[in-house]
Design a protein that fits this description.
Blueprint: E1 2-7, H1 11-24, E2 28-31, E3 43-45, E4 51-53, E5 61-62, H2 65-72, E6 77-79, E7 84-88, E8 91-95, H3 99-106, H4 112-122, H5 132-157, E9 187-191, H6 195-203, E10 208-211, H7 216-219, E11 225-230, H8 234-237, E12 247-257, E13 267-269, E14 278-281, H9 282-286, E15 293-301, E16 308-309, H10 313-328, E17 332-334, H11 346-362, E18 371-374, E19 380-383, H12 385-389
Parallel strand pairs: 1-2, 1-11, 2-10, 7-13, 11-17
Antiparallel strand pairs: 3-4, 5-9, 6-9, 7-8, 12-15, 12-16, 13-14, 14-15, 18-19
Helix pairs in contact: 1-11, 4-5
The chain binds flavin-adenine dinucleotide (FAD) and uridine-5'-diphosphate.
């Protein structure tokens, strides 16, 4: 009997497996339908021996010492500050927009003070900033919005920035100084031997069994466990009873080139003409030396693996219905980017998982002999007399 069945071996699932196994002596089965651990942060050496991120560039950054210290148990780090250029009007300029971006783009030599005055002169007055368009035009005006944000966002999300919550473009700051780092967090570093090596260390414990290539539907009736931690898409768990939650997908085109370096920076963003949004050259991220180089192009897609929850009011309303159901589902804990429908970075998922861990560790002992089966409607039902006798909602959604 496992104490926990953990669905998904990404950050959310792996942090919980590690904590519960090592700190509470729980027996954990962690499964993933993919053939590897690490979730979307999975990296591997490709056929040429270059370390690449299968699901697009993952750069670790956090302001949380707790999160950084926690992960530092499983990996040494390589200090790394991420820099991005945007291809605009035939030039490559720093992104986020800063003093050098403006000077290069317009052939000027403005000081920081003058750039600030320039932004103020072009910024639109928007009394209540609600959308991803509002955020940008209220800071840098419409022209820069159109050059850097409008089309990138339309490609990435399949909708206009005016239809997306302000939180999306708020992720990218605007600066009047020359700081060209993409992030300004206190801790910015990459796992020295890669993410997968870090995950391997997290999961290397006798109390943790890992099962790959396994959708949880295939085993949920066969393997006894007390509680479930679910990190897949929340709408899928409940068989889409409130409809599909939109998740944006990507297609990754990986390429290895017969030269040591391809791009002038780790990432080049293409806000306009191209069908892809950005190209990433992995060796910048990993520091690896190799006579060849590997890059990845990202092509946004409506269909495919779910990568991004889509932050907008309509979707939050659907998610809230699923959340209510999730909260009422005894014995199953929902955590991570897909299961809580949050556009979270890796560090936020680690923090969320550590919070859930504390809650579980502090909870009274679970009831014995709980297990789940799929009901005729495909919705999970908890078996186990003690829980069902408690009159809790167990699959009767
Ligand atoms: P996931 O990593 O998605 O793990 C969930 C796992 O559950 C998956 O492996 C999936 O296969 C498995 N699963 C789902 N359903 C089932 C099922 N039915 N049965 C079995 N297994 C199932 N964050 C950063 O901090 N920095 C970055 O630079 C960054 N870049 C990113 C770039 C891209 C292109 C993307 C898509 C994301 C990026 N992120 C970045 C976000 C980061 O990937 C996530 O925050 C993090 O990986 C989420 O971890 P998770 O465990 O919640 O989900
Ligand atoms: N964005 C943009 N132009 C850019 C970079 C970002 O319009 O050059 C917008 C776009 O909507 C994107 C969002 O800002 O989805 C957040 O960017 P970030 O780089 O954080 O995206 P992620 O790395 O999560 O894909």
């Amino acid at each position: 009997m496992f104490d926990y069945l953990i669905v998904g071996a990404g950050f959310a699932g792996s942090v919980l497996a590690e904590r519960l196994a090592t700190q509470c002596n729980k027996k954990v089965l962690i499964i993933d339908k993919r053939p590897h651990i690490g979730g979307n942060a999975y990296d591997h050496y490709n056929e040429e021996g270059i370390l690449v991120h299968k699901y697009g560039p993952h750069i670790f950054h956090t302001n949380s010492r707790d999160v950084f210290d926690y992960l530092s148990q499983f990996t040494p780090w390589r200090p790394y500050e991420h820099r991005v250029l945007a291809s605009v009007d035939g030039q490559l300029v720093p992104m986020p927009i800063n003093m050098d971006t403006i000077n290069k783009l317009y052939g000027l030599q403005l000081t920081s003070f003058e750039v600030d005055a320039f932004f103020k002169s072009v910024a639109e007055n928007i009394p209540v900033v609600k959308t991803s368009e509002d955020v940008v035009v209220s800071k840098v005006g419409r022209e820069l919005y159109e050059k850097f944000f409008r089309n990138y966002t339309r490609k990435q999300w399949g909708m206009d920035p005016s239809e997306l919550d302000k939180s999306v473009t708020s992720r990218v700051p605007v600066r009047t100084n020359r700081d060209d780092r993409y992030f300004t967090d206190t801790f910015q570093a990459m796992p020295l031997h890669g993410y997968t090596a870090m995950f391997e260390k997290m999961l290397a414990h006798p109390n943790i069994k890992v099962m790959l290539n396994t959708d949880y539907h295939e085993i949920v009736e066969m393997i006894p466990f007390r509680e479930m931690i679910y990190t897949g898409p929340v709408d899928e768990y409940f068989d889409f009873i409130y409809g599909k939650l939109p998740y944006r997908s990507l297609e990754f085109k990986h390429e290895t080139l017969d030269k040591a370096q391809h791009l002038p920076a780790a990432v080049v963003n293409y806000p306009n003409e191209q069908a892809y949004t950005r190209i990433t050259e992995f060796k910048y991220l990993t520091g690896q030396e190799h006579h060849k180089t590997s890059v990845v192009y990202e092509f946004p897609r409506a269909e495919g693996d779910p990568y991004y929850p889509v932050p907008r009011v309509e979707n939050a309303a659907i998610y809230n219905k699923y959340k209510k159901l999730a909260d009422e589902t005894t014995g199953v804990h929902f955590v991570g980017r897909l299961a809580t429908y949050k556009y979270y970075n890796m560090d936020q998922v680690v923090a969320q998982a550590l919070t859930l861990y504390k809650k579980l560790a502090d909870a009274p002992e679970q009831l014995p002999e709980t297990n789940f089966v799929l009901g005729a409607n495909g919705i999970k039902q908890v078996l186990g007399s003690a829980i069902t006798a408690g009159g809790q909602l167990n699959g009767k959604h």
